Amino acid sequence: MTDRRTTLAGRADDPTMAPVRTLIATRIEAEAPAAVILVALSRVDIVNAAYGRPTGDALIEAVGTVIARIAADTGATLAALGGVEFALGVPGDLAAAHEVAGCLTAALTEPFVVSGIRALVGHRIGLAVTIPGDDTTGLLRKAREALTAAKASDGTTMRIAAAEDVAPLDELAVDLHHAIERGEIDIVFQPQVEIATGRITGVEALARWDHGRLGAIGAETLFAAADRADLGVALSDHIQQLVLSRAAAWGKALGALRVALNLTAADVTRPGFAKLFLARIDASGFPRGRLTIEITETGLIRDLPAVATLLADLRGAGCRVAIDDFGTGYSSLAYLKSLPLDYLKIDKSLTTDIDGSARDRVVVRGVIDIARALGVAVIAEGVETEAQLRLLAADGCDYYQGFLLAGALGETALAALMEKQ
Fold it and tell me: With DSSP H G I counted as helix, E B as strand and the rest as coil, what are the percentages for the chain, rounded to 5?
């Protein structure tokens, strides 16, 4: 039977939402920014089935304690909605809400020890921020819709209320168009470390947009907004040119680093893209041999034969090729034998619990063994602990990136980190 608390949880009239509703109403009345974050846990039913309902309840309580600590540390207001959902009211803009959501994700990907067992919980996040004219009920509705979208997606932990809800579509399109023209799109770089030597040998380039009203917007949201505004191609072209020109101008401190650049599914299916892209690289002055092209599995399944031809052309011209986020959605070992690859990037979802789950360790080790047998180097994403790194090293992983060393950095911070090597 469905728990009535879970059915009621998160509705605008849910009495447990009162603290969050009060915060949002107060902020709206003061014309101050506010956000709502809804968190839904998963995998608790697996713990219930394997170890009994008391252990599952203890797990929810442990998670609730962690979320309460994060709320207290960030100044958010918490409401436990019953069942497996929580709501947080954030007294700030999208950037502040992103920070809180990031803390939640970092904490909830760690295993919880309850009743003598180590358990992992899954989670999805729906986030909505106020805009002029919002009321409390409308904001909660947008957060609920975002959470529903996150639950329905493959591999996406968080969804922000749709761009047309955050701002009118025409306004957002104008903002993004002007942002490109004015050079407001920035690039940050996450280091990639060679495990054998401990040295930074490359970086992944990531786009950021510091929107004047909505705060910092990451690449996923940025491209979603661009697609809705029919600016996806223009944005992708702009980011490619920006990354290449910035990297080409690096001095001695950064000049030897390899740079990984993400291509979108739309990029790799554009007619004549290989010729256009190679001309762009050469015009920038950045060496082809130091550029790695990253493409996700979503991009591969759009048109695998055409993508394979494109990647072969780029690799034949001197670039290197990587599959990004391997282990999410449509992973297939067939890609490893049918595509011209140099690197395989193991997704964080596979590396998170390799020090706590024998099954995860076996899967990761198997992927590494197959990749090495095919002459493909392996990069582990999302490495956050020394224990994870030790196991990856023992299993023969070649590189890692993650918060164990650093998140995405500006060039000044990256150069300072390089000087410490």
Answer: 50, 20, 30
Amino acid at 82: G
8 A C-beta contact, residue 192 and residue 379: yes
Q: Residue 319 pLDDT > 90, yes or no?
A: yes
Find the helix or strand (DSSP H, E) in which 286 lies. none
Which amino acid is it at 205? A
Instruction: Quote the pTM value.
Output: 0.63
Kindly report the CA angle at 117 between 111 and 122, in degrees rounded to 5? 35
Return the DSSP state at 162: P
- Closest by CA to 268, choosing from 199, 215, 339, is 339
Instruction: Give the model's confidence band at 164: pLDDT under 50 very low, under 70 low, under 90 confident, else very high.
Output: very low
C-alpha distances in Å from residue 296, one per residue of 232, 261, 347: 16, 11, 10
Q: Would you say how long the chain is, in residues?
A: 421
Contact of 192 with 183, CB cutoff 8 Å:
no
- What is the Cα–Cα distance from 77 to 68, expressed in whole angstroms? 9
Cβ neighbours of residue 134 closer than 8 Å, sequence gap 6 or more: 28
Task: Give me the pLDDT at residue 11, please.
Answer: 46
- The residues facing 258 across adjacent strands are 202
Single out the residue of 187, 244, 193, 188 nearest to residue 418, CA to CA.
Answer: 193
pLDDT of residue 6: 36
Residue ranges of domains in the chain, CATH in brackets: 4-161 (3.30.70.270), 171-419 (3.20.20.450)
Question: Who contacts 148 (Cβ-Cβ below 8 Å, separation ≥6)?
Answer: 126
